[in-house]
Amino acid sequence: MTKEQIQSSKPVDKSLGIVLAAVTTVKAKYIEDANYYLRESGTKEEQRIDAFEGSLFGKHDDYPEDKSRDGSLIALPLKPGSYELCNWGLYIATGVSFTDIHPAKPPVPLKFTISPGEITYIGDLHIEPIMGKNLLGISIPGGGNPGISDNSAVDLQLLRKKYPNLQDWPVRTNIIDGQAWDIIH
Length: 185
What we know:
The termini are far apart. 30% of the residues are buried. This protein has one domain. By secondary structure, the protein is mostly beta strands. It contains 1 helix and 10 strands; from the N terminus they run βββββββββαβ. Strands 1, 4, 8, 9 and 10 form a 5-stranded mixed beta sheet that branches. Strands 2, 3, 5, 6 and 7 form a 5-stranded antiparallel beta sheet that branches.
């Protein structure tokens, strides 16, 4: 299922659909990446979508004016059908090493549908780090709290700037209900 993100200079096959999502986290130097995993319903093969994919020399941020979040707006072509978000993760720098945070057990899948020739905006997929303190009182990552919200007012404007080749594609807003994944209620 591995698909490449849409390139702004290349046309996209209208027999496909597009999933559109922001993948974001808090603005913090210690966060190296935030990611969500999706798959076609009924399959096991997962596709990872990252907030900072390919950012070897600093994090790319599609939201520099937003003081509360960093991340990327992702447009991914998919064949029409039923899909689900199936997991999430945070990659955090912890001094001289890194911590990869995921749920202990995979969460319940969150479903959405892709239609041909249409962009489906599923929301801002945000992960908030949960910090704790070690025995010395130093802050350390203890987990993450994923959340999904409607940021379409900003994200759909950014879509038109970042992907001019998708100007004539209709957009359906279908914010996934992510309450089942919310750790802190």
